[in-house]
Amino acid sequence: MAKDTQGILKEIKDDLRAMRSSQEREFRLLFGAIITVTLGLAGLMAHGFKWIG
């Protein structure tokens, strides 16, 4: 019984570790996309207001 419980706990810990890694990767991708879109819109506005060529 104790070995089964330890095995299940190990599986749960491994799954949580994998989920955290996945979330970190997704956060970095999302954060990069938000920064890229913000800079693109700022450039578009600057061009529209004729602040840049």
Helices and strands in order:
Blueprint: H1 2-48
Transmembrane segments: 27-49
Keywords: Membrane, Transmembrane, Transmembrane helix
- Order of SSEs, N→C? H
Please give the alpha-carbon distance between the first and last residues.
73 Å
Mean pLDDT: 94
Low-confidence stretches: none
Major sheet: none
Secondary structure: helix percent: over 70%
Shape call: rod-shaped
Whole-angstrom Rg: 23 Å
What portion of the residues fall into strands of 2 or more residues?
under 5%
Give me the count of strands: 0
How would you describe this protein?
With 53 residues, the protein is mainly alpha-helical. It contains one helix and no strands. It is rod-shaped and about 75 Å long.
In short:
This protein is an all-alpha fold and 53 residues long. Helix content is 89%, strand content 0%.
Question: Can you give keywords for this protein?
Answer:
membrane, 89% helix, 53 residues, mainly alpha, transmembrane helix, 1 helix, transmembrane
